[in-house]
Automatic annotation (TrEMBL):
Name of the molecule in the record: Lipoprotein LpqB
Superkingdom of origin: Bacteria
InterPro entries attached to this UniProt entry: GerMN, LpqB_C, LpqB_N
Keywords: Lipoprotein
Coiled coil: none
Region named Disordered: 34-57
Pfam families, per the entry: Germane (PF10646), Gmad1 (PF10647), LpqB_N (PF25976)
Domain GerMN: 205-296
Organism field: Microbacterium ginsengisoli
Length: 565
């Protein structure tokens, strides 16, 4: 990432899934609804939509059915009241959701007679959630219309054929659905890695456990993470009840062959995944109804020091009360290189530096060592296994990861169509890499999985996912926490700060004028930004406050030592 002084479009695909006719715009596999016997989590808000009204027209029946998508209780029992015949059991609401703009939605009768009718619904979608809970923002302003067929019953008009999935207007969506993290391991079993999914808040614990145990990681991340749950292990109960903050997860008898280490890792994945509901503090794991005495396996934390890491006239280190708290064996050597960028390893013993002479340099107790002296290098990034990643700005495909000694690994990049790369940073757990590239003449934020062996040696990158497009250009990007990126775009008084949750939504706000670089802290709502005058601002909530002055380089951190120094 560029640290020295010197909108939004998410790409999504629409596919159609139907019960008997054309369907909702969404992707992913179709799943059966949850058992109505599952003990539900209690969401903050529960919607209780109305059922069919006497004398309702075909348009009103379809409108009521769509509105009933906000009520997942009983497997969307209210919505099913609008259906008749095979559609009652055949309609699959868990196939996904289309998020649209209610004011732009239109419902019209395509044809009708005394006993049957066809109704079409035109949507202006903003996002889709597929059957696996994967959220994708939609660039297109319109989608193919939805078609419903109806017949006249003794109780009034009812729907005989409806698209799978539900439709929610964007104002309701965040009340009915929320983002949750399925936690997987990196290949060394050191870090827990989030894979963000969106599920209805009702029965969230059951949905999370089912997706983690019975499902798979997102395709773009799948080669970069591992799970303690083998394909032979599945949920033994259709529900995951939560009692006083304790989730009760039962596995089928096939889990009996798992050793203690594997069970501990299962427990850790479940505990951290279910904690994302905000209602689960621990997990009781059982097999075929018999409770196990299992302690969650430990995992490495990725939190960083909350202080500003920077280079000033007083030196390089953490700034506290106007003074610089230097790092033994690192600070003096870093400052001597007249650096353009500095990224500090999680144990604070090594720094990846773009030196003033343009060379990517490793700084540790042995002193500075130039690793890459190609022309036009951008700011490097150091991963938790000690590999320093570097690439020339005008050669995005020439990515190299340098280990200790003479180890240099050429990494094929998944953004081969890019003409330039302006910033890159490996996630703190080492499983993902984010890059700002120029593609099609536009600045684009992309993320890809890092494929490693069991020792943490990088081998390749997975397929890249395009997250954001910045028509006004972007200067820097950084990981704000384990699943969120921050980007500085625009310039001068038009500078903007954008956060995007990987697999979630993005928000944009004004940045301090002249912002050129960004560093993450530990939560998406807090970030540090350096402006062109050497002032560091810190964002907390929705406001920016001056943090430090006289800063020439804003450093970034890749974690914290296992024990505080």
């Amino acid at each position: 990432m560029r640290r020295g002084i010197r909108s939004l479009v998410l790409v999504g695909a629409l596919t159609l899934a139907l019960v008997g006719c054309a369907g909702l715009p969404m992707t992913g596999a179709v799943h059966e609804g949850l058992s109505s016997t599952a003990e539900p989590d209690v969401p903050d808000v529960q919607f209780k939509p109305n059922g069919p009204q006497a004398g309702a027209t075909p348009e009103q029946i379809v409108d009521g059915f769509l509105n009933a998508g906000s009520g997942p209780a009983g497997g969307w029992a209210t919505a099913r009241e609008f259906l008749t015949g095979t559609a009652v059991d055949g309609w699959r609401p868990d196939a996904g959701a289309t998020v649209d703009v209610l004011s732009a939605r239109s419902i019209a009768v395509a044809s009708s007679d005394q006993s049957s009718a066809t109704v079409t619904v035109s949507l202006s979608p903003t996002a889709t959630v597929d059957g696996e809970g994967a959220y994708t923002a939609v660039a297109e302003a319109a989608a193919p219309p939805l078609t419903f067929t109806l017949s006249k019953q003794s109780a009034g008009w009812r729907i005989t054929s409806a698209p799978n999935g539900i439709v929610l207007d964007q104002d309701l969506f965040k009340s009915v659905f929320r983002a949750y993290s399925l936690m997987y391991y990196d290949p060394t079993w050191t870090f827990l890695v989030p894979d963000v999914r969106w599920f209805p808040t009702l029965n969230a614990s059951t949905r999370i456990a089912a997706a983690l145990i019975n499902g798979q990681p997102s395709p773009w991340l799948a080669k970069s993470v591992v799970s303690a749950f083998p394909e032979t292990v599945s949920l033994g109960s259709p529900s995951v009840p939560v009692v006083n903050g304790v989730a009760q997860v039962d596995l089928k008898e096939s889990a009996l062959t798992s050793d203690q280490t594997t069970l501990s890792r299962m427990q850790a994945q479940l505990t951290d995944s279910l904690a994302s509901t905000g209602q689960v503090t621990s997990v009781t794991l059982s097999i075929a109804g018999s409770a196990l005495d299992v302690t969650p396996a430990p995992s490495r934390d990725t939190r960083v020091d909350s202080r500003t890491l920077a280079l000033t006239a007083k030196g390089f280190g953490f700034i506290a009360a106007g003074q610089v708290d230097e790092l033994p064996g690192v600070s003096a050597a870093v400052a001597a290189l007249s650096p353009r960028s500095v990224e500090l390893s999680d144990d604070r013993t090594t720094a990846a530096v773009l030196a003033g002479n343009g060379a990517v340099t490793r700084v540790d107790a042995a002193g500075p060592a130039a690793l890459d002296q190609r022309a036009g290098l951008i700011a490097p990034s150091i991963d938790p296994f000690g590999y320093i990643w570097s690439v020339p700005q005008t050669s995005p495909s020439a990515l190299v990861a340098a280990g200790t000694g003479a180890t240099r690994i050429a990494i094929s990049s998944p953004w081969g169509g890019a003409s330039r790369v302006d910033a890159l940073q490996v996630s703190r757990d080492g499983t993902r890499i984010a890059a700002l590239v120029i593609s099609g003449g536009r600045s684009v934020l992309m993320v890809a999985g890092v494929v490693r062996d069991a020792q943490g040696v990088p081998k390749s990158l997975g397929d890249a996912v395009t997250l954001l497009s910045f028509p006004a250009g972007a200067s820097d990007a950084a990981w704000l926490d384990e699943s969120t990126l921050g980007v500085i775009s625009g310039s001068g008084s038009s500078a903007q700060f954008t956060t995007v949750q990987i697999g979630g939504v993005a928000t944009t706000a004004d940045a301090p004028p002249g912002a050129v670089a960004i560093a993450g802290v530990n939560v998406p709502t807090i970030a540090r930004v350096l402006d062109a005058n050497g002032t560091v601002f810190i964002r907390s909530g929705t406001t920016w406050q001056q943090d430090s002055t006289g800063v020439s380089v804003l450093g970034t951190q890749q974690g914290s030592p296992l024990t505080s120094p």
